[in-house]
């Protein structure tokens, strides 16, 4: 796909804004990934015994007043912070930007759970008298909330969407932004994914009921993708949004270019509610490669989705083995081992944490991989220590979610 594109249809990343459990900008996040620093901490939530989570500590007041914070949502705050940081990082003369030609595309896993749980808890104190129910409930719980709050914060009058794509949502946000630029619907896309998941007790309770909630006496060692001792998911919050532009527009204003999105794909397992399908995942990766006009041998870093669940890791490992075989130069890593599973933000953060590899030539490690599960045989996995690579030209980012939704995004170094 990419080799046949006209320059007008080539889309590049020019600004990055993020908050993660171990960093509130790309430099901090990347530093933590290279240093092996986890962001997982002890956590308590309503009705649950003490657990673990990836918790963000960004400055909410940087772009929001107290009134905005009272009225809005945690997902909205995450999105506002990330969007403003991305716009700032991209170096726009924001007052001069045509706001009707800006689109906002935010991937989410779920939305409204936090507010609904909180409101029910509050009215339970008043014998369920709904007269004390918040009049802010409806705008807080609509599915477009996070993207809509960004448009209000930045004065954007172009289209906005939240894309419900389970844990494939971060990639879905990127893909939507690319497509809208190629359709000439917008001139600038703010795209990626956010998550407020740790603020709903229901997600912890559900994973606990499944026996899929991670446990470990050392929080930093709880998330263990591909490891024989893995025992489940660490729930995390976070966000990663980027500014996407057409290549000629970025060049015309002298923008810093992090990379070019050259391939992507999404498909569905059409199988189980929860259990993934290695065959459909492999097909998604192959389709993204085909659209990028490259082969497996052209990929240098694969950012795996692996959540540290038993069968999920096995299925993805099989899919990657089918596509990449034993290609020795490919480096496979995993970001969840550092921060847990940030749900709608996972794919976005995982891609962004790898973007600096184009410049420093290093693949960050998968930490906590002390005893590799032989059922997840992937000789290319970067275990515990970062790996310096001979080249980094293409990064492939996997994100898969419940109900069998799969997404893959491929980014190429620019200039190539």
What does this structure look like?
Helix content is 33%, strand content 20%. With 416 residues, the chain is an alpha/beta fold. The protein has a ten-stranded mixed beta sheet, sandwiched between helices. A hairpin with a 7-residue loop joins strand 2 and strand 3 (51-54). Helix 7 (169-182) crosses helix 13 (346-354).
Characteristic terms for this protein:
Peroxisomal Thiolase, Chain A, domain 1; 10-stranded mixed sheet; 416 residues; globular; alpha/beta
Approximate shape: globular
Cα(first) to Cα(last) distance is: 16 Å
- Give the CATH topology of the largest domain: Peroxisomal Thiolase, Chain A, domain 1
According to CATH, the homologous superfamily of the largest domain is: Thiolase/Chalcone synthase
Order of helices and strands: EHEEHHEHHHEHEHEEHEHEHEHHHEEEE
Widest sheet, order of strands: 5-4-6-8-1-9-15-14-10-11
Proportion of residues in helical segments: 25-40%
Q: What is the count of β-strands?
A: 15
Mean pLDDT: 97
Given the structure, what is the number of helices?
A: 14
> What class do helices, strands and sheet pairing give?
alpha/beta
* CATH arch. level architecture of the largest domain: 3-Layer(aba) Sandwich
Give the class-level CATH name of the largest domain. Answer: Alpha Beta
- Rg over alpha carbons: 20 Å
How many structurally independent domains? 2
* Low-confidence sequence ranges: none
What share of the residues does DSSP label as strand, in percent?
Answer: 15-25%
Q: How would you sum up the major sheet?
A: 10 strands, mixed
